[in-house]
Amino acid sequence: MFLILIFLLGIAIGSFLNVLIDRLPAEEKITGRSRCDHCKKKLSWYDLVPIFSYFYLGAKCRYCGKKFSFIYPVVEFVTGVMFVLVIVWANQTGQYSMPGKTERIGEALLTLHNQTLMLVALLGIVSVSVVIFFADFKYQIIPDSVQLALFAFSFLYLVTQGITPAKFLNQIVSAFLVMTPILLLFLITKGKAMGFGDVKLAFSLGFLLGTLAGLMALYIGFVAGATIGLILITLKMKKLRSKIAFGPFLIIGMLSALFYKIQLVQILRSFYSF
């Protein structure tokens, strides 16, 4: 029952993320009611029930009949699933559980407070990741405001893990180290292979994960990007010189390294025998 509530919370948040995905790249205000992009008619609340309204309305606007993008329910569903996975992961790894018996109630409250902040940080990272993934996928733009949000949630997560001034400086150094390969590609290709948004994303990625996991995330991103690129070229959906948004692949690498770092290290070691 609890996970169902988390899923419902996730798809509700996902509905708002759809607004951010469409409005932030266009530098529009994120306040105000949602509207049909075609007829500009403001949508009622019953037109905006996550996932349900999309299929109930036949994937089209109630007023003008214009088809809605399939990405809208996908974003909502993915966000709901990701929220559930975060809770399950946190519980399985022991990062979130009800405090046990302690001699002082203050210790129990402090533990619960820290765990709650950790969950807020992780769910924030996931939410921002969804926005970056689909904004870059749809518009090939990663808004600076979203980049800052990712950095902020990453910092909050590190705080819950007991960050110290020395650890903070180490994470900053890691951020620059992880960013360097992407920055070099950006400079060498003059922005044709990588956008500067990818450079900034790699910085936040390195800050969150550290050097080893950050480079692992880049590796996963490059492998995933190359694989999808080859498939699209083979299917003649893209040409060899076509530009493909790299942000989504960096997000895949980041989340994979964040939640499954130990398993990925074991896989890479067995694959490359090191």
TrEMBL record:
InterPro entries: Prepilin_IV_endopep_pep (IPR000045), Prepilin_pept_A24_N (IPR010627), Prepilin_peptidase/N-MTase (IPR050882). One of its GO terms (molecular function) is aspartic-type endopeptidase activity. Keywords: Cell membrane, Membrane, Transmembrane, Transmembrane helix. It comes from the Bacteria. Signal peptide: none annotated. Residues 125-230 form the Prepilin type IV endopeptidase peptidase domain. Residues 8-88 form the Prepilin peptidase A24 N-terminal domain. Gene3D superfamilies: 1.20.120.1220. It is a multi-pass membrane protein. The chain crosses the membrane at residues 71-90, 116-134, 146-163, 169-189, 201-232, 244-262. It is found in: Cell membrane. The keyword Nucleotidyltransferase does not apply. Belongs to the peptidase A24 family. This is Prepilin peptidase. It comes from Candidatus Roizmanbacteria bacterium RIFCSPHIGHO2_01_FULL_39_12c. The lineage of its organism: Bacteria, Candidatus Roizmaniibacteriota.
